[in-house]
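Thread: quick sanity check before group meeting

JM: Hey all, I'm pulling together slides for Thursday and realized we never actually wrote out the predicted structure for the chain we discussed last week. Dropping the sequence here so it's in one place. If anyone has concerns about the input, flag it before I start.
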Amino acid sequence: MGGDGDDASVPGNTNSLPLPGAPVLAQPTVGALTDDAYPVTFSWSRAANATGYTLCRKDESQDDNCAKQGEPTTNTSLNLPLSLDTTADYFVLASNSTGKTASNEIAVSIPKPEMPVLATPQVGAFNVSSSSYPVTFSWDSAEYATHYTLCREDGSEDDNCQFLQQTEANNTSLTVNLNLDEPANYFVLASNGTGKTASVKQALSPAPGATNFSIGVGELENGYHPVTFNWEEADHATGYTLCRKNEALDDNCEKLGETNELSLTLSLGPLKNHLAEFFVLAENSTDKTASVAKSLERSDLTTLITYIKASNSEEDDYFAYSLSMSSDGNTVAVGAYQEDSSSREINSGESNNSASSAGAVYVYRFANGSWTQQAYIKALNADAGDRFGHSVSVSGDGNTLVVGAYGESSKATTINGDGNNNEAGYSGAAYVYRFDGSSWTQQAIIKASNADPGDSFGLVVSVSGDGNTLAVGAPFERSINTDESNNDSNSVGAAYVYRFENDKWTQQDYIKASNAGYRDFFGYALSVSGDGNTLAVGAKEEDSDADLTDPTGVTDSGAVYVYRSDGSNWSEEAYIKASNAESEDNFGWSVSVSEDGNTLAVAAYFEDSGSQGFNTDGSGTSVINSGAVYVYRLENENDEWSQQAYIKASNTGLYDYFGYALSVSGDGNALAVGARGEGSDATSINGDGDNDNAGDAGAVYIY
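JM (edit): ok, ran it. Output follows.
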């Protein structure tokens, strides 16, 4: 063992050597504890006339007061593992044949521990039975520490330490139960035989007190009514979270905002919040305490309604004849298919009225707390009578818009063909627009591959959630089978599916009913799923009976067809009839498919039964044109569609046309149904609908 010092010179005549000079022992260096010992390095200067050196621990019971440490060496350094369990003095004896000379003495002990770094304590859930919180304290290992003591600061105790718990050096965390009934500082003492070193203190406080809060709706400002939540300061709170109550989330809290202040101002819509409860979480490092929950007043909800009119509103424009909202609720497209401007640009030419019923679409965005008009959209080949905007559909992210113009009259039969002629009246078209983050541009004008006058291609459109699958209905198309070129029967109807791939739109399929027939109006309604792989198509005047034994037995009863795509090909998965099919019910007048394509809602708005509510008796025709809705699910066990519900209004009435419009939620668990002919004079939500004092007032039902 030893360092790398040079060997001592040995004179030729050792019997005449003088005593060695005194070596100078430097301050030893102590390394980290390894295998229960500290590596200690001793170094000294070379002594004149010395032929060797011995490292000694001072011990007056030994010769030369030297308890030898290691073997004698001719080097000038030595590394030894020492326990250092007590402080001791060390020196070096320089020797030769004449005698020995001792160096200076240096006391060696374990260095004082380094400072431990105490992390923020982690406070667990309050334990009711012990009236305490489990608190975990963790720290970084401190060099030279042999044990740690967890302390609550107390100036009356040694080292300001009210003892909580102690652990050996190989453990760097402790969990203790604390009442936390008053603010206190906590720290860790790293200790060894030499001394103690305290960590930086961490403060813990009692759980915050509950706060009182209020809700106020302000005056119209920058296009919206600000909703301000104010609360009082809570004892011991270091921050606050404003929550909308949602029992499915941690702390029942859907976070609306976090702040150190005593108020937050937000923009809120009435629909999501009409039954919502709001509360404030007062927080600190110990816990969270919720305030009492409160709701918006009914008058506040009415104030929060956003009322939108066209920027060039005029009589008979039919603004809002069609509309579509993105999945996040922040983009709305509104069609006005009888708007009369002749403009062929986006965001230009609103003021003229030289192209009767050319049609327009308006796009609105919700940002920074308010709704603003983002675009006024016209077809690039706009002409009188095109009825652009009769149908609209927005993708889930709000960045793709599809517009139907069933009156468009060009003879083009391709995508982005020549639309600047009017040689095929009412052949129809669909237009695709994309938003690039700053502006809307027309990406494609889509025509049926077999466009003919009167087909009304674009009467309905539906785009997938990602905006890359598009379905278009042409309910007046006249082909009787999959031969696109024949026109053998009026108003048979067809549906067309397009995909956006490789930066372009292409037609993927031309879809006909498996039992296509005269005046079935297949394609009068359609809906594509969010993933773009399920398509439901309504044929509102299909004529077969409910058990399919007679293809013409129930005139205009209606049917719905469900198609699935494997990514490249579409196939018919189901042919669905109402369980109580009757003549002229128009089952398939409107359809809606869930995001995953496994829930389907279908309306028969001329259905005549007098029942009310869920799954009641659908027989009878006593309440003419009251309307009904049917909900179907795809059962994955057997891959078959089954009827889940037969739904009537809660206040079924004559000529209510329940089901004139409908929409199923993305998850398939909620349904909205419109009844344009409902005639009660009730106002707002859940009013008295048991009268007919306001004919054709209309109503919406949410299930």
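AS: nice. The chain is about 0% helix and 40% strand. The two ends are 87 Å apart (CA to CA).
JM: adding both to the slides.
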